[in-house]
Design a protein that fits this description.
The complex is a heterodimer of chains A (160) and B (112). By secondary structure, chain A is an alpha+beta fold. Chain A has four helices and nine strands; from the N terminus they run E-E-E-H-H-E-E-E-E-E-E-H-H. The chains are: A alpha+beta (160), B mainly alpha (112).
Chain lengths: 160, 112
């Protein structure tokens, strides 16, 4: 299954992968910083309008901790924890993550690459779930949360 | 509206995805479906039951045959779900475009 528009492509690959690609009009170094520096991450990795990220910990060094906490300002919230596995400045990030809803979801292994593409950058994010059932659950759990929030906030399950 | 959880679970099996691909070509009987899969008709019937339960196919009775075809609402629900997911991701990345534009104009690198 695949869905596309001008910039973003999201598709399922095989039984356990979800692959997202997106072009950005900025060099790889800038995209890298926006994915690794908490003050920048907090500005965009938010999901639906009205949500903020009051806590953002991101240490991209191997073994480094990741923790993102979101809130809708009305008592609603959830968080994600993870560990960095690999960091090749400005081209490749690998980490593992899980959502806490509040029970932890199975680990999602995420490899993100940034390649020069014309004057900008092509980002490819490849998520690997433990098995087909987990991927199915991840994709469909998002539906429930999305229904609550008018806009889907499940991107948070997918794009860290 | 079909249950997407059930629908995605139904789609997690390669044989069932292949059955859906075959049905995309048109209505088919169980016997015709079983042929390319080297599976028995009862085995195919079990897969069809899962697909039917997930709202992805519908079956009708025609004498002793039970031809099946794609159920458009189920297939459309999955398309719509992926579209919503894409919209939500796109929203994050549109915001990231803004952040990148700010970084570019901030020559002092204060955002870092």
């Amino acid at each position: 299954m695949t869905t596309t528009m001008s910039k973003l492509n999201l598709k399922t690959v095989g039984d356990t992968h979800v692959v997202v690609t997106r072009h950005f009009a900025a060099p790889p170094e800038a995209i890298w910083r926006a994915h690794t520096e908490p003050e920048l991450i907090k500005k965009w990795m938010l999901g639906p309008d009205g949500w903020t990220m009051p806590v953002c910990i991101c240490d991209p060094r191997p073994g480094g901790k990741i923790r993102f906490e979101w809130t809708n300002g009305q008592g609603g919230g959830f968080y994600l924890t993870g560990e960095s596995l690999e960091a090749v400045p400005y081209s490749r990030l690998v980490h593992v993550e899980r959502m806490h809803l509040p029970d932890p979801t199975p680990d999602n292994h995420v490899e993100t690459t940034f390649e020069p593409d014309g004057t900008g950058t092509l980002m490819t994010m490849r998520m690997t779930l433990p098995d087909a059932q987990t991927r199915a659950a991840m994709l469909s759990t998002g539906m429930e949360h999305g229904m609550e929030a008018s806009y889907v906030r499940l991107e948070n399950l997918l794009n860290k | 509206m079909p249950n997407l959880d059930t629908a995605f679970s139904a789609l997690s099996d390669p044989t069932r995805r292949a059955i859906l691909a075959r049905l995309a070509l048109g209505e088919t009987t169980v016997m015709e479906l079983a042929r390319p899969f080297e599976m028995t008709q009862p085995a195919i019937s079990r897969h069809l039951k899962v697909l039917e339960g997930a709202g992805l196919i519908v079956r009708r009775v025609e004498g002793t045959k039970r031809p099946c075809r794609l159920a458009n609402p189920g297939i459309e629900a999955i398309d719509q779900w992926l579209e919503m997911l894409r919209t939500a991701l796109a929203r994050n990345y549109d915001r990231l475009d803004q952040v990148l534009a700010e970084m570019k104009s901030d020559t002092g690198g204060k955002l870092g």
